[in-house]
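call fold(seq) -> tokens
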Amino acid sequence: MQYTHINVHFSLRYRRIISLTAFGVSFVTSYTRVTHDAIYNLRNACNLNSSTKVCALSERQMQFWEDVDDGLKNISRYHETSSTGLSMDRIKTFAKTARGEISIPQPSVVGHQPSEEYVHGLTAKPFWDARGDSAQFPWAEKLEDQSHIIIEELEAKLARDQAGNSLFAGDSSLQNQVMGSGWSAYRLQRLGVWNAENCKEFPRTYNLLQSLEIPLAVRGVCFAKQGPQSGVQPHSDGRNFILTSHLGLKIPEGCWFDVANEKKSWIEGKLTTVDTSFEHSTGNPSNEDRYVLIVDFWHPELNDAERSALELVYDLRNKFESGMVPVRTPRSILQQRENIRKSQGDGLAGLWKALTGG
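ret:
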């Protein structure tokens, strides 16, 4: 039996409910206020009864997961036969949780709100000292020390571009319901792809980021602006295997960043590094724009095999959602049809056996 599930980036106040339809194709239903228990029960509803077929995957979703499984097997085979010996067990569990085959994790730390896109065994804490931990974040000190390059380039661009009004834009109208109309971004990299046109506007920033070899994750890199008297509503991004650094670029007095009810402010030229699978929110009570550079990167406790596997999963997801992968009939459906064809000579009993596998 295969299942779909409800992917809920849940918050104790505002909850972003996304029907991810088994991770392959997504649509957003609403932003609403609901309780944590209601969300947890909703997301696990498809796991309560193994005989329930309401949650069966569509053929397109089955195709997606077949492609994922093929890719994961190739990565696992490479590491098993090479000298790395790296384990893929946590990613196999990740796939089962994302498909809805096993229950989503219950938060183990106050304020932590992970989604079913979850890797077990990773350290979870709201704030991280990236500069102070050169073993896990070897690039952080260098980024802070050369932050003047990014600040100068942004200031010059804003001066040429009339306060940057033509630069920044919200990702979507949906996003603005949580991020607020005051939040906007200018993306340099996303889903592993650098935006060549945007990077041309910030060549020194691009060259610096490239030289640091930051293990960038799927959400990538962007400049983020938050307008005066605006804020981002409390929410969780759900994925516990991605950490986020905000490099302060222009921070008016009074601006704040709250993660799991711990409130801090950004400092210009310094990194504020957080786990955004904790509930977080921001505020700019000033009369000026606030600017930070947002850098998303893989959790440092992932091994190379796990990073490669997650990159494959999200690259495939992007290709499926953008229509780049042609539709085909899943192998499991073809096998079922073949079983039915072979069983036709066995009458109703053979047909029932072919349909149920019993």
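Confidence is low (pLDDT under 50) at residues 1-55.
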